[in-house]
# Entry
Amino acid sequence: MNLLATRIRAFGHRLFGTLRRTQAEHDFNAELASHVAMDTEAGIKSGLEANEARRQALVRLGGAEQARQAHRERRGHLWLEQLVQDIRYGFRTLRRAPGFTITAVLTVGLGIGACTAIFSLVNAVLIRSLPYGDPDRLVYLFTPNPNLKVPPEVLCPGYGDYYDIRRQSRSFESMSNFVQVMLNLDERGTLHQIGSARVDEDFFKTLQSQPEIGRTISEEDVQAGRDKVAVISHSLWISLFGGRADVLQQPLVLDKASYRIIGVMPSAFEYPFGSDLPYGNSHIKVTQIWVPLVLSAKERSAREPDDNTTIARLRPGVTVHDAQAEMAGIMARLNKQYPGDPKSLFGSMREWGALIERFTDISIGPVRPLMRLLLAAVGLVLLIACGNAANLLLARSTERSRELGVRAALGAGKGRMIKHLLTESLLIGIGGCTVGVALAYLFLRFLPRLDPGNIPRLNEASLDVRVMVVAISASILTSVIAGLLPAIGTLRMRLTDFLTSHATRRTTAGHGRMQSALIVMQTAMVVVLLAAAGLLIRSYIKVENVDAGFSPSTVTFHLTLDERYKPQQAADFYRSLMSKLEALPGVQAAGAVNVLPLSNSESIGMIVVDGYPNNSFQQTEFRKVTPDYFAAMGIPLIAGRTFNEGDTAQPGNTIINQAFAKIYFPNRNPIGGRISGDPGAKLEYWGTVIGVVADVRHMSLEEQPQPQTYNTGFDSGDANIAVRATIPPASVINEIRTTLRAIDPSLALTDIRTMGDWVSIATALRRFQTSLLAAFAAIALLLALVGLYGLMAFSVNRRTRELGIRMALGAERRDVLLLILRNASVLVAGGLVAGLFCTWLVTRVLKSFLFGVSEHDPLTVIFVSLLLIVCGLVAAFVPARRAASIDPMQALRTE
# Structure
């Protein structure tokens, strides 16, 4: 209580001193003003005008004002001179202690580097402005259906509904429809498949994006016969035309048709990116060509969802809630007005709803939790680095207590010494900031190797002005916090405390207690980081060990047929391609499927199962395959048989997966069961189940397989080809290119990967977050161990005489070793207990990041505890061993 009262009185004295100085300045100004007023009044009485009288009064009293200004200038020059002296002295003292300086700078640099690197990611992904006008008013429009078991963001309004919404709605300033497509670009005889989009006349207007050169697509361009125009991206302009100024009107051959370039977009505009759409075309990472979306009268009146995406711009002042309420009313009227065709896939379930999502919530919303997690992690690393710097400065201020005492005896005030200590801390912070920025720069150079591919604009992370301001601010904040602890200790000391050994030992003990508390807090934060990293690592291992249901060595590629291939020609083409691929040396099987597992694409079908209690339409994942698809993918056959050429000639037979069999044939043999995919009410067409295959993880490795049906009759314009071979993938790919060139040289391959590569892509985001958090946990552990080592070394130096007396009185070296290790164990145990408690509270926020592991996983807790105890004892062993080797006689002569 006495100490608290003393601190309160000291604070009161400082506060009242400041107030007194302020009051004195106020009194001086008031006195000067009164003299000016009196002299002005006297001048007016003598016949002068008021302005002239005041001017002469100010001239006569200018000496007082000049004196005051001179006094202020002298104080400013003195402050600047003292600052320069402190900086010079700080440099000299830091140069005389290179070990301390390097350790402190590297410690702060690690924390600043981690903070700067992650903030550069957050800045690029979440903070930096999007290349669209007022993106907060951009929204996506969806029409979910309660009868369909699909995410609501899958279905956008059909074209007919879209045009009705655009005409009837008053909430939107503009609306646009577009469709993602892959176009074959002919570059001097070489074909490349380019991510493209067919867009309507309001696409660029809705996004409020202007071209860098030329114009965008207009209303005339979306008319049939006038649609052979294209807008290209800045990157395609550079790569294809070398940035030529005469790019406009240049021809562009797409799918064997000649297009005329009418515009070039800015470098930042490549919408839609792969991460901008919740369920976009997985083969398109960025869009480089935009061509007109031309619709026939039949297509414009279609009411069923298609592959289109709808975006809109809200009017100023209109909220998402208001727009959704209006759209819900419109859709309710349209559902009654257009009940649908019962023979169509969705005709019997015309219950389209309304959902409006903000553009930013769709594009960057999914990665916000990850960015916040990484920011929290680097925040802990920065705090640990700050604690380490404070520990080092506390130890250094204790060693310099005599020096500070001499300076105090020579007349240096406490304020001056505190400024000197803070200046040293700021110099360390500046050095740490330099090291941290260099580390962040190296991290950003290495970042492309970690890019999971589904974090928007991750490749745009850079050390811009905003990031540098944050880095400098973090270094200043770290320096001030770290320097305040020894400064406060200096403020509390009296002159005699600096010069007497007893007071010095008392001060040293106080610093030791403060350092111990810092170590406990650092250890607790390290436990939190290690536990979080451990949980993510265990989740990642669980995901990697999931049985995906296919062979990872299978080579796959995507193929798009152009308009020359009608359904029958497409079927003949794939039959010929499969037979030629299977004839290649080393190839065991080749097959095709409309949607490939883990490619973020899906096809849904509605079926009726004969004998199932619920005789209404059931939703299933629908696959079109060629006969040898299962052999090519390595999907095991569980029961029955797979397809043969006879099934291709007479489609109707069906293969199902295990999930389908468990749900629809729970207590009966599925082989021979009947399934109808006929959308009509009569159910005239029934297929027979001829086989059951193993489940395949399709949308994600972390989601349970859904019911799937496989049918033959493959005649799709888009196909994913799978080839299983005994030779290396590179050799297989060369053979595939040669074979395809011999059949049709105008076709191009894309997404050439093994299924193992698809698995790696599916786990990339989890690998990214796990790698970063594990790296931060390792940095935090290293910093904490350095801090513990430093504290134990400081403790041994401080207790040299005590340890010498113990050994002189008969203590064994082993006893001294155990004494130091026991002290370190107490600190580690205290931090471990506090950290485990914090972990129990904090890891609840990790639940959404985990897979197959509880947030309170006991194995992770045990591993983290053992790791921390072992590392802590190893860090304390070196100073403990040095303490055990002390010569008692030499130790007794230290004082």
Summary: The longest helix spans residues 2-45. The first strand starts at residue 138 and ends at 142. The radius of gyration is 37 Å.
